[in-house]
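Rather than argue in generalities, we have chosen a single entry, letters for residues, whole numbers for local backbone shapes, without further comment.
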Amino acid sequence: MSVRGGLGLALLVAAGLAAPFFVYPVFLMKALCFAIFACAFNLLFGFAGLLSFGHGAFLGGGAYVTGYAVKIWGLTPELGLLTGMAAMGALGFAFAVLATRRQGIYFAMITFGLAQMVYFAALQMPFTGGEDGLQTIPRRALFGIVDLSSHLAMYFFVLILFLSVLAAIWRIVHSPFGEVLRAIRDNEVRAISLGYRADQYKILVFVLSAALAGLAGGLKSLVFGIATLTDVYWHASGEVVLMTILGGAGTMLGPVVGATLVVGIQNYFAEFGAWVTMIQGAIFVVVVMAFRRGIVGEVVALLQARPEKTVNPPQIDSVPTTSPVPAGLQKG
């Protein structure tokens, strides 16, 4: 990690530690949950080039599975989250096996169709609570020791998991596996010609992304004590695309900035009702038109820009004072 990256990470950690003493912790926890969700999606879209329109299935599915495991089975929070991640990893594998057979918009529409199937399953299954959702999910004690009933304790637990996810994604992206993902994103045919089995890499990154999205959903269900159809609806899949593009796809902190911006607009402009959607749309249009690489993407591009080398003008002494006269025109 570069000095600039280490400094940015230190500032992020410092801001995270100080934030709950100045901002309402529940809002911060919601922002961090969606930041994990956006980072998980960015791993698939920003670094592998796979646009999924069905990632809400993993957010909502993780919320339901984690909530059920903690409430009905009596598991501790960490075991409930691991159960939700494992279930969403398995669901992501099923999605990937079907969706990776196609590319581009066909891949996106297959994921959208599969996510809609998950939504209707969640609507009909008895353990999900239908339209009422799975309510009164307890937080319980972490490892049976640390009480998470207070907002402050729960916030620091969410913060630790967020930083862990960010570190894990950074390690994945900067590993040989991440290099292959970028090669597939940039030119899949060339990557295949070099001997890489692109389908297997795409399936694996899809599973990783789905598991992390399930972690985000599970955390959200523990924070608010409820898992509802809202998280598994197609609107959640569209929101994560918006968050990632706003912040900057293919950057580490872009999804975090995008998620914080969208969640902030939803919370602090809630009094405007339906106008919130229009505000989000206007901001999205402005960012796409003015910052094509996203907010963080443009900042990174400016920091990495180097002044172009200037060509020194010809010296005056080297320029002849008189133009040469053709031999035929010289005086004899």
The first strand starts at residue 141 and ends at 142.
